[in-house]
Amino acid sequence: MKMVKKVVLLLQAVWVWTTAADPLKVDGQPDDGGADTLSHSLSLVQRLEVMFLQGNGSDVTLRVETPDADEVKLMAVHALVLSLQSPVLEHMLRVRNGSTLTLRESPECAAVFEKFIRYLYCGDLSLRLEQATPLHRLASKYQVSVLQRGLTDYMKLNLARDSPSGHVAGWYEYALEAGDVSLRDSCLQYLAWNLSSVLRSGEWTGVSSQLLMTLLRRSDLVVQSEMELFAGLEEWISHNRPDGLMAENALRAVRYAMMPPRDLFRLQTQSAVLARYQESVRDLLYMSYQFHAASPVHMAKYFDVNCSLFVPRNYLAPVWGSSWVVANPTRDDRSTSFQTQLGPSAHDASKRVTWNILFSPRWMPLTMRPMYTEAGAMQPTRVEGGRPRVIVTPATSSADFAGVTFQKTLLVLAQRQGRLLVKHIYDFHQSTEENGDFLADADLHRRTSEYLVDGSLVLHVVIKPMYQSLVTKN
Prior knowledge:
By secondary structure, the chain is an alpha+beta fold. The chain has helices at residues 2-21, 41-54, 79-85, 87-94, 107-111, 113-122, 132-141, 145-157, 168-178, 181-193, 195-198, 209-216, 226-240, 244-252, 261-270, 272-293, 296-299, 346-349, and strands at residues 26-27, 37-38, 60-65, 72-77, 100-104, 222-223, 314-315, 321-327, 334-341, 352-363, 387-394, 404-416, 419-428, 452-453, 456-467.
């Protein structure tokens, strides 16, 4: 009965405050019953905020302490409001002794606790990047699910924001700890797809050994070359000085066979890290030199080389592909051409393959395409209202292609917070139509589309040659 009485008194007080302060607002659109709608919701929120800031009618004092009790915060609050928003606080308030409820929080969470409580009253908050994790931790601890989801969305939308020491790796570690799978996967994908820029940031040397190994094992890393990745790893090892086993495992995740022999020789003579741990990767270096010296197809007859060492990542260097800026992508079909090396092995590196690439903004999906008319003639497949499509084909067939398959990878870049980043990656053999969802939600007709950079679609095509006997899933 006491709780019911408090509810009634609170609502009566808020109604008096709102109606006294604001003229009646009438929404001219009647509801299903033909009645108009009266709305004082904004004033209600404003009055609740005043109640929190001034402590009017409070019945509980929150005492927020840090573990070593060197910082204490006192807040006059209303048990009803907190109980309605958080089942955890509702239980703690119900079983408390006295008018004070003591809560122990980490220094980071204590610093933003007032923001958290204000959200329970007002339903909004302002925050900086570094405050997202402690606020998310509080929302999770006290089971304020709406705020928890909102903060997850905020973090996913702000992965590309500039910060002095970086924040994505820290958010990944937190998501891993908190069990937030959606946030964890978004952070990991961002780091992998934009690793070339992450390697040059202040965040790189601070990533954990667990995150480092998770990244090194991926084939979808976007970097200039394997040499760039090795240089980043060398910097990480020099800065963090991990134990020998960790360093060896990390060095063994490098794909040395994707480096030209001249780079391998330079590493062996100039890298202090490789000199220290060379014995642990000697077999990989030896196999890489063999890979470059002989025909890879011939080599596969005698050695077990079916491993990630021989699978290219998404390399941005010109020998692996080409960037392409498609201006006014909704206008008409566009095409261009570029060259890559036949294969990663030095045996094939001097051989060049010319590729033709076609972009069509309105291509009917294969599953919806009527192939023949009643007279038996083939129907055109380029139609108004169709979806974008990219086709990549070799300019000529060649006997040199024997034993080699080509996976095409298309990077779609977008602009976020003023930075160009990889938004999507599509893998296919000839056409993006194989994916089924290529640019499905891009809406290229809308000039404000996040897929457009100054009105253009920015793409990067990567050709990943793999010797057929070496193809493996990674």
